[in-house]
Write a structure and sequence with these properties.
alpha+beta, 222 residues
Length: 222
């Protein structure tokens, strides 16, 4: 069991399924390296779709996938999110709210899902440390607040055989609330996968499509 400590002012594993999502660098293996679905910006599909096939959605882009379009996330980051959403039933997640933050444990008995969890957590931690919000349509105000208040948050994480345990703390009351709110959101994504991702996107106005429609009717959005 490896144990590392980061004070990155970040969401660490709390960005696990988001786009927001739960955190140390890892290689971007590009469209050819994705386990779930190879998809470009125009919705073209590659091979695989392990989770989607099981849902009878082969050859289609489910509504939850729109929540991973737009923003500045890499193709590799999007593919990891899709894989985690599609295989959400393989993920075990527990959250403990602390007086000054959260403790989360996100793991999977599936070795490939566990590896994706670790990779996603590492990449999101680096994003938070650098203040690079991926700005995906499924992101909540709590996640945006975590990026904004990154310097007020300390994060430690422990890599386990099956995933990651994260503890995040802050002396700032608003930052603590954002951490706890977002942790609950990530748990919902872990429990319901693409359905929860689609609902998050619609809550934010329908993602790119919603913003485009509003722009056409109301002019530029601030």
């Amino acid at each position: 069991m490896k144990k590392k400590t980061l004070v990155i002012g970040g969401i660490a594993a709390a960005t696990l399924l988001v786009g927001g999502w739960a955190l140390a660098q890892s290689a971007d293996h590009g469209p050819g390296g994705m386990r779930g679905m190879g998809m470009g910006m125009h919705g073209q599909m590659g091979q695989g779709m392990r989770g989607e096939m099981g849902s009878g959605m082969r050859g289609q882009m489910g509504p939850g996938m729109m929540g991973m379009m737009g923003g500045n996330a890499t193709v590799s980051e999007r593919s990891d999110l899709h894989d985690l959403f599609a295989n959400h039933d393989q993920i075990k997640r527990t959250v403990t709210n602390l007086p000054d933050g959260i403790r989360t444990a996100t793991e999977s008995d599936d070795p490939q899902v566990a590896a994706t969890i670790k990779k996603h957590v590492a990449e999101m931690g680096k994003r938070v440390q650098e203040g690079r919000d991926p700005s995906l349509p499924i992101e909540s105000s709590a996640l945006h607040a975590i990026f904004r208040d990154k310097d007020k948050i300390s994060t430690t994480y422990e890599t386990t055989e099956k995933g990651v345990i994260v503890v995040q703390k802050s002396a700032d009351v608003a930052a603590v609330k954002a951490l706890q709110d977002h942790a609950a959101e990530v748990t919902d994504l872990a429990n319901r996968g693409m359905v929860a991702a689609h609902e998050a996107m619609m809550k934010n106005g329908g993602g790119m499509m919603g913003r485009g429609m509003r722009g056409a009717m109301n002019g530029p959005q601030v």
